[in-house]
Amino acid sequence: QVHLVESGGGLVQPGGSLRLSCAASGFTFSSSAMSWYRQAPGKGREFVARIFSTGSFTDYAASVKDRFTISRDNAKNTVYLQMNNLKPEDTAVYYCFATARGSWGQGTQVTVSS
Fold this sequence. Notes:
single chain; mainly beta; seven-stranded mixed sheet; four-stranded antiparallel sheet; 11 strands; globular
């Protein structure tokens, strides 16, 4: 059974940083591209970032490019999202997604507010 468990969310002031983690189990993590999505209150889920299975390719939404960095550690079955220079509009529930299995985590709340 696929499990994706996000962690690292919280409350941060504008301009601050957070690092999200997504621990995966139940499938061959090193063979799957992984993505982060987010859903703000009253809005649909939107793509944030993606990383190929080997980490050789990454892709970002325009709204987060140059502020967020996706990475992975295949030895730890974990994907990360480093978020810098956070803005109030980054407030959302952040979800990790395993492409190979079409599976979602339960999400972690990120709130950017002064």
